[in-house]
Write a structure and sequence with these properties.
About 2% of the residues have low confidence. 2% of the residues lie in helices and 29% in strands. It is mainly β and 273 residues long. The protein is built from one helix and 16 strands. It folds into two domains: 141 residues, Leucine-rich repeat, LRR (right-handed beta-alpha superhelix); 130 residues, no CATH class. The longest helix is centred in the C-terminal third of the chain and has 6 residues. Strand 4 and strand 5 form a beta hairpin.
């Protein structure tokens, strides 16, 4: 491939060693250098190298040069429903000032640390198209935008993850929102009634920091399903600290009493707790 270095990789054990259903051998593709890409990029399902045809399974990052995919404005897949794409490497799009769209392929499982950090023009992806189980530290820190804007020019960021997410990294969605607007706010949902959460490991502050100039997620909804008792008895899975310091989900700074997060824990019947 003209713009990429290509290597064969076994996905089993790369990051997703908990579900062998997704084990596969394929190609990892990495831009030859930072800035080599521009405009719309479409990722084929399969490529042939030296007579060997395999699926593309990982988008890699240029060694020692974070943000190797910088320059691309939109990322599409030849056929997202049949793509075998499993993961996106750490820092692949880190700091991109041009990326506005990333299509989520339907077997994506892993988004690395700092992968979309500071991608402020990126429209909120449709995460629920894929069984993503891991999102790394600072993966969408200071990233994401939306076309939903209120009369005060506040931008609304509504993020929905599938129930398959087990691990959310530190500050993975902190400060969501385009900095050209005075404030971003909105909701964060994990799972649905028919696809309840498998969450086991939320790290510190995955979604919010209460600063008027930065992103604020006002409503956290977790569809707990039959695990509702576990969540009610273990607030380390969802707790929001009332004032100062850090907590599992929210950081509420002293003096910002106008911000009170809402936490909805939903049981299998759709009842809110």
């Amino acid at each position: 491939m003209e713009y990429f270095d290509v290597a064969i990789k076994d996905y089993s054990g790369y990051a997703d060693n908990e579900d062998q259903e997704y084990a596969i051998r394929g190609y990892i593709i990495t831009p030859k250098r930072k800035g080599i890409l521009s405009g719309k990029v479409t990722i084929p399902n399969n490529i042939t190298v030296n007579g060997t045809t395999l699926p593309i399974i990982i988008l890699g990052d240029t060694s020692g040069d974070a943000g190797g995919w910088t320059g691309a404005s939109k990322i599409f897949f030849e056929n997202p429903a049949t793509s075998e794409m499993r993961g996106i490497a750490d820092s692949a799009f880190n700091g991109s000032s041009t990326l506005s769209y990333f299509e989520i392929p339907h077997k994506l499982r892993f988004i690395g640390s700092n992968t979309f950090n500071s991608c402020r023009l990126l429209q909120v992806p449709i995460f629920t198209n894929a069984p993503i189980y891991f999102i790394g530290d600072f993966a969408f820190n200071a990233a994401l935008t939306s076309d939903i804007i209120d009369l005060n020019n506040n931008i609304e960021i509504n993020i929905a993850l599938g129930g398959e997410v087990k691990k959310l990294g530190q500050s993975s969605f902190v400060n969501a929102g385009n900095s050209s607007f005075p404030r971003a706010y909105g909701s964060f949902t994990i799972g649905s009634q028919n696809n309840p959460t498998q969450l086991t490991t939320p790290s510190t502050l995955p979604i919010s920091r209460n600063n008027p100039s930065q992103g604020q997620i006002h409503t956290l909804t977790i569809w707990c399903g039959d695990r509702i008792t576990e969540f009610l008895n273990n607030n380390s899975l969802w707790a929001a600290q009332e004032s100062g310091g850090s907590s599992v989900w929210f950081y509420l700074r002293s003096g910002n009493s106008n911000y009170t997060p809402v936490v909805n824990l939903m049981d299998a019947s759709g009842q809110k707790h």
